[in-house]
Amino acid sequence: MENDNLNQLWKNQVGKNEALGPNDIIAKAKAQRSRQYISIAVMAITAMMVLIYAFYFAFPDWNSFNLGLTLMITSLAFRIVLELLSLYRKEQKVISLTHNAYYDYLKKYYKVRLLINGGLTPMCFLLYIYGFYLLLPYLEQYLSAGFYTYILISGVITFVVIGIIIVKSILKEHRFLRQLRD
């Protein structure tokens, strides 16, 4: 939000919370928005890779391999749509609100973000892991033992890292919401 008029409007108003001034709110909103763009890009690339894999290697008959791929793709697609809707909704609101109204909007926005990151994201993540789990017997059957072990270990490490990122994101947004309330 590089809008100088918006910045000037915010600076001229008396905020409810002097600890978080207009520049602080703008900086935090920009940082959060850039994290959303990165999340969307990573999820989209992952979804595309799984989708391409599904088109090349999915068996013609329905089985747990296809179910696993479907769960992985669906959970990623659902999460991408949630992020895009959240981002778009915030972009629409930002231009038309005064500092105090935007401050109130941010509180509501981050409550919704906590619901998304605290409830829906872990559910999508668990569906993705379950989809991966459903692929394992087929991967073990068709891949060499060494490559299967590599996929298994790298998958577990990746899931642990993603889990840590999700928890950190939830905690960061929770702290920001707490700052807005104080």
Provide keyphrases for this structure:
5 helices; single chain; 182 residues; 0% strand; mainly alpha
Describe this structure in words.
This protein is mainly α and 182 residues long. The protein is built from 5 helices and no strands. It has helices spanning 4-12, 22-57, 64-96, 99-142, 145-181. The longest helix is centred in the middle third of the chain and has 44 residues, at 99-142. The protein is elongated.
Briefly note the structural class of the backbone. mainly alpha
Number of domain modules: 1
The gross shape turns out to be elongated
Order of helices and strands: HHHHH
| Number of strand elements | 0
Cα-based radius of gyration, to the nearest Å: 21 Å
**N/C terminus separation:** 24 Å
Strand content: under 5%
- Look at the structure and give the mean pLDDT: 80
Number of helices: 5
Residue ranges: pLDDT <50 for 5 or more in a row?
14-18
Largest sheet: none
The helix content, as a percent range, equals over 70%
Write the layout of secondary structure elements.
Layout: H1 4-12, H2 22-57, H3 64-96, H4 99-142, H5 145-181
Helix pairs in contact: 2-3, 3-4, 4-5
